[in-house]
Write a structure and sequence with these properties.
two-stranded antiparallel sheet; about 70% helix; 2 strands; ABC transporter involved in vitamin B12 uptake, BtuC; 14 helices; mainly alpha
């Protein structure tokens, strides 16, 4: 295969990695019934902090750890506000998004456009030498490989384990879960903090792997895309990953078209914003009446399978505080 195509496909895989961390993390949070809308600001702040710590200490690992702690700390605010104080989760998330975005610009000002450390490439033995598949999937770095593991682990945990069943029960019918002896609020705290840590890792993956360094609004908009991907993926780790790779493909397509001589007079802003617009358009189409008409063409059993594939159902108790008794 053409090396250019292989390199483009490999860049899609790398670009999707931070969205996978953020999307799967938010999926775990929302499966417990909590909405964390602070993703965009959290990713910005954690990306800045990860780069700053890695630059000052020389340790990329410490950068990732710092980002995870920041993500968990911001998620803890969401958890306390929604679980203990029973505040509107959407409003709390919006406020935190604006606060953390501004903090990232203020605190990150000394680090703008400075060269710094990054996570180097590590080709996996044997797997990296497989023709075609190796260069696309197994010649990256540990952050990208970690995204593969996260997809598998999140799916297995939610679908195949007893704790995963409790997680789904808390998000669907918290009263029934409580009646069976499950501590609903503890579960919600746990997965909100875990999901927040994953979002923090997404920020570190941007500044230390995908978009090296730090600049103002370094990752602006990607948190909202991660939230959209959770809905697009129907709160399923596999489909969330598919949405992340789709967005990565749209970004790569924009870069390819930008270098095409036929589009030399097209403003570059169009290519940078087009993936966001196309993702919104795709979400709108999958939720519109056109999709319903398409599904009506099939027999009921096939229609149900296709509907489950195209659409997902939000946890029934999403955004609803649990009141004991």
């Amino acid at each position: 295969m053409d090396p250019f195509i292989i390199n483009t496909l490999a860049s899609i895989v790398a670009t999707a990695a931070p969205l996978i961390y953020a999307g799967v993390g938010e999926t775990l949070t929302e499966k417990s019934g909590v909405i964390n809308l602070s993703l965009d600001g959290t990713i910005l702040l954690s990306a800045m902090a990860a780069f700053a710590v890695a630059l000052n200490t020389g340790s990329v690992l410490l950068g990732f750890l710092t980002a995870a702690l920041i993500g968990a700390a911001i998620a803890a605010i969401v958890a306390v506000a929604s679980i203990e104080l029973e505040q509107e989760q959407v409003a709390v998330g919006f406020v935190l998004t604006m606060l953390t975005a501004d903090l990232s610009s203020f605190l990150g000002n000394p680090y703008v456009n400075r060269p710094g450390p990054y996570l180097g490439q590590y080709t996996l033995p044997v797997l990296g030498k497989i023709p075609l598949i190796g260069p696309i999937f197994f010649q990256h770095n540990w952050a990208v490989y970690g995204s593969y593991v996260l997809i598998l682990l999140a799916w297995w945990w939610m679908a195949k384990t007893q704790p995963g069943l409790k997680l789904r029960g808390v998000g669907e019918r918290p009263e029934s879960a409580f009646a069976r002896g499950v501590n609903v609020n503890v579960i919600r705290y746990l997965y909100t903090l875990l999901g927040g840590a994953m979002v923090g890792i997404a920020g570190a993956t941007y500044s230390l792997v995908v978009k090296l360094g730090w600049s103002h609004n370094h990752t602006a908009g990607n948190g909202w895309i991660a939230l959209a991907i959770v809905i697009f993926g129907g709160w399923d780790p596999w489909k969330v990953a598919g949405g992340a790779y789709l967005f990565g493909a749209l970004k790569a397509l924009g870069s390819v078209l930008q270098r095409n001589p036929a589009f030399v007079n097209v403003p570059t802003q169009i290519f940078s914003t087009a993936p966001f617009a196309l993702m919104i358009l795709f979400l709108a189409l999958t939720s519109s009446g056109l999709t319903d008409r398409f599904l009506e063409m099939f027999a009921p059993p096939t229609r149900r399978r296709l509907e489950n594939l195209i659409r997902g159902r939000a946890p029934a108790a999403l955004g609803r505080p649990f009141r004991r008794g």
